[in-house]
Design goal:
eight-stranded mixed β-sheet; 12 helices; AB hydrolase-1 domain-containing protein; Rossmann fold; alpha/beta; 10 strands; 394 residues
Length: 394
């Protein structure tokens, strides 16, 4: 059974003491109960006078925190079981200064979990099926993890080599701090995706990509059409109205408030996953998504950085994606799979775009923005059907 941390901290390190002006009552449990404070608390921080403090506590200390409730377990976790199913792949060279990363707020040295590889970045991925079969690469959205495809992977294992991975900055992959080898620009995500695909798949692949990372995958595919069998877009931002982040995500890009809320596991994981559709998370699943934010400040700083990059460049990338998918030189069989209960992206204009650009549209009425979470098994059947039809038309 998951256990509550002995002494929940309100900062990133057990050696850095942050005090709320309106402290949480001692009797309030830090279990994820959904009882969020209506107002963001004011806070101040001060060190304990030591010079060797770190912004990340050891995992066993459980140094995560949440303004709206949360819990950390130093016992067995569903996240541990998921990690055992995967492996680490090294891809995309790190071109940082070689210095140890420091947090962007206080300039404190960060712990080992926040330090990226000094040569090649480490990506966490889970594979299913034989490597001799055609490859299907499952790309999670923003913000999420490879874990979101846990129901899809076994559906593809018989006939395909399915690979779900964590983007840099998410899940179990490296979480380099901006200016220490990776700045989370959309251009860097395109380049890093190329390196990762080259590492895990020799032959042609099918790409399945969800949400706000769809423009990144399309930009990569536009320069590597010979490498792609199919591309399946799950609730991508297709229209001009889609080019603005919803408030649930854009808040992470705000000055100071973004740094605070990106460290809150219930805002960064639970709310981001459940506010965009009908998805209701089980506690075991929620703990997998919260784990990176509960055990290290690195995940929050990465979330803050990618939110700012998305807010800056998403409009340009969405327009580029629309142009690319409408161009007569685009030869990749393309399917848009749309969960119609998406609360972030409107369905208005999606049907017209697919019709005009001659791309297949598949509607999933009971799914929201995170299609793979709401209807994982159904999505698995859709993916198999799309690949099967493409091969029959060859």
């Amino acid at each position: 059974m998951a256990t509550q941390a002995k002494s929940p901290s309100l900062c990133y390190s057990h050696k850095l003491q942050c005090f709320l002006h309106n402290p949480v009552p001692a009797s309030l449990s830090l279990v994820g109960n959904g009882k969020a404070h209506k107002k963001a608390p004011k806070f101040s921080c001060r060190s304990n006078g030591n010079d060797d403090y770190y912004i990340d506590a050891p995992v066993e200390v459980g140094d995560g925190f949440s303004f709206s409730g949360g819990k950390y377990s130093d016992g067995p976790s569903p996240s541990d079981e998921w990690f055992k199913q995967g492996k680490i792949v090294k891809a995309y060279a790190a071109f940082g200064s070689g210095e140890k990363a420091k947090d962007p707020i206080f300039g404190l040295a960060m712990g080992a979990d926040s330090q990226a590889s000094t040569d090649i970045f480490r990506w966490f991925c889970v594979e299913s099926g034989s490597a001799d079969n055609p490859s299907v690469i499952l790309i999670h959205g923003f913000p999420s993890q490879a874990y979101s495809y846990r129901k899809v992977l076994p559906m593809l294992s018989k006939d395909y080599h399915a690979i779900a991975f964590d983007w840099l900055g998410f899940g179990f992959s490296d979480k380099p701090q901006p200016k220490y080898g990776f700045d989370y620009t959309l251009n860097e995500f395109v380049s890093s995706l190329e390196s990762f695909i080259n590492e895990v798949a020799v032959n042609k692949v099918t790409l399945v990509v969800q949400g706000y990372f769809a423009p990144v995958a399309v930009k990569y595919a536009s320069s590597h059409q010979e490498k792609i069998d199919n591309i399946i877009l799950l609730n991508p931002p297709l229209t001009a109205r889609h080019a603005n982040l919803p408030s649930t995500l854009s808040i992470f890009s705000n000055f100071l408030l973004g740094e605070i809320f990106s460290q809150d596991p219930l805002r960064a994981s639970d709310k981001a996953l459940t506010s965009c559709g009908p998805y209701k998370m089980k506690e075991d699943d929620a703990m997998v998504y919260r784990n990176p934010y509960l055990t290290s400040g690195a995940s929050g700083f990465a979330l803050n950085a990618i939110s700012r990059a998305m807010k800056k460049d998403l409009k340009k990338y969405v327009e580029e994606m629309r142009t690319t998918l409408s161009d007569e030189n685009w030869k990749i069989p393309t399917t848009v799979c749309w969960g119609k209960r998406d609360r972030w992206l409107s369905y208005d204009g999606v049907e017209e775009f697919c019709k005009d650009s001659k791309h297949k549209l598949i509607e999933i009425p009971m799914a929201g923005h995170h299609v793979q979470e709401d209807r994982g098994e159904e999505l698995g059947e859709v993916i198999k059907g799309v690949i099967r039809r493409t091969r029959l038309n060859l």
